[in-house]
Amino acid sequence: MIRSTFLIVLTGLALPALYGQDPLSTEAKQAWTRTKGNVLGAAQKMPESDYAFKPAPESQSFRDLVAHTADSAMGACSGYSGERKNAGAAQLQSKAELVAALTTAMEECDKAYGSLTDAKATEMIAGRGGQRSRLGVLYGNTIHIEHEYAQMAVQLRLKGQVPPSSEGRGGPATKKQ
Question: What's the pTM value of the predicted model, to 2 decimals?
């Protein structure tokens, strides 16, 4: 029992040393940075001619996924900062316009994640479905955008492209079809 308590205390003391003074917000920012890179990479990688691609008639097209991701990220991250905005991506058609809208939304998210500290993490703000913690809003955003990226990755694979999260890993699963 004493040994277990000692290990728990030691672990609690080690986290700030590993992540600085803000371990929760640091992990949230790291997850966001990875997710943002994958989503932007996927949007840039898919050829414009395949933006209309749907794996099944009832599925979203790749264009729709990029537009939804831009609008969703902009809404969540601008809402975090107190003014809910829309990227307007749902009305856009060209790859260049959609990538630009997605980039703008990701920049808005960078501001939100950049302002997060562990001291602010438990502050309650208006979020989807009511009051949420600042950390909860941003983790919810990352999880949702990861879900969208997963669909993008499948569509990239179906079009013979290697998703950004799989690049450089070697082996047959990462070779262009």
Answer: 0.84
